[in-house]
């Protein structure tokens, strides 16, 4: 039997990237002449990228949607040097691995972005499995990426917990039947995360690490 798994979202959960995505999307929308306020973009960060584009472009023609996605990638790469791990992120991943649990990056980022995020984290030695956007047709809040992560870890929902920073993370986890620990590091309020099903909720990876013994993560160690 495989060890229980902790599934981690990456953007905004382990790496401080949320507002860089907001900037990149805002530049992309400006390029196609569809200005969008930063707060509107922030509300959609963590959502499936295609869904974000369709929603905020009001179902623009497919060529416009493709231009938006390509431009976002361009502007995001331009600012990727500003990416940094959130406080306690590396230590949290190592602690989870030290407990004998699998560390799974349940990300829906494109492969090139995920490669960059993994370099920023510099924790490949403790990462057991990963997912990316190519693994599903529709990302969060659809539960598909969570199910792929569970399958790759070889565990059931009862043997896992999800850690994320967005309402889309909590909704995807709930749809897949596993609990979600929420983090405020993506800029979403505790009330909204709780309403989406996240519990408990911590400020950032360091705060979660400081209180790890009181969470389901510690409880999973008894199921090894």
UniProtKB/TrEMBL annotation:
<dbReference type="InterPro" id="IPR041492">
    <property type="entry name" value="HAD_2"/>
</dbReference>
<dbReference type="InterPro" id="IPR050155">
    <property type="entry name" value="HAD-like_hydrolase_sf"/>
</dbReference>
<dbReference type="GO" id="GO:0008967">
    <property type="term" value="F:phosphoglycolate phosphatase activity"/>
</dbReference>
<dbReference type="InterPro" id="IPR006439">
    <property type="entry name" value="HAD-SF_hydro_IA"/>
</dbReference>
<dbReference type="InterPro" id="IPR023214">
    <property type="entry name" value="HAD_sf"/>
</dbReference>
<dbReference type="GO" id="GO:0005829">
    <property type="term" value="C:cytosol"/>
</dbReference>
<dbReference type="InterPro" id="IPR036412">
    <property type="entry name" value="HAD-like_sf"/>
</dbReference>
<dbReference type="GO" id="GO:0006281">
    <property type="term" value="P:DNA repair"/>
</dbReference>
<protein>
    <submittedName>
        <fullName>Phosphoglycolate phosphatase, HAD superfamily</fullName>
    </submittedName>
</protein>
<dbReference type="InterPro" id="IPR023198">
    <property type="entry name" value="PGP-like_dom2"/>
</dbReference>
<dbReference type="Pfam" id="PF13419">
    <property type="entry name" value="HAD_2"/>
</dbReference>
């Amino acid at each position: 039997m495989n060890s229980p798994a902790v599934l981690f979202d990456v953007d905004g959960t382990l790496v401080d990237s949320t507002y860089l995505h907001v900037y990149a999307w805002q530049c992309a929308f400006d390029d196609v002449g569809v200005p969008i306020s930063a707060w509107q973009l922030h509300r959609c960060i963590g959502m499936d990228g295609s869904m974000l584009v369709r929603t905020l472009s009001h179902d623009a023609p497919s060529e416009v949607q493709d231009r938006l996605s390509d431009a976002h990638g361009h502007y995001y790469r331009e600012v990727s040097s500003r990416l940094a791990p959130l406080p306690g992120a590396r230590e949290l991943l190592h602690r989870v691995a030290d407990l004998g649990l699998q560390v799974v990056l349940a990300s829906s980022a494109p492969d090139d972005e995920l490669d960059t995020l993994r370099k920023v984290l510099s924790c490949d030695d403790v990462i057991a499995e990963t997912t990316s956007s190519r693994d599903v047709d529709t990302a969060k809040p659809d539960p598909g990426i969570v199910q792929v992560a569970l399958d790759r870890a070889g565990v059931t929902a009862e043997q896992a917990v999800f850690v994320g920073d967005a309402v889309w993370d909590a909704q995807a986890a709930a749809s897949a039947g596993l609990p979600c620990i929420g983090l405020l590091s993506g800029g979403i309020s505790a009330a909204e995360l709780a309403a989406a099903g996240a519990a408990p909720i911590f400020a950032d990876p360091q705060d979660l690490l400081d209180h790890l013994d009181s969470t389901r993560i510690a409880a999973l160690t008894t199921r090894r």
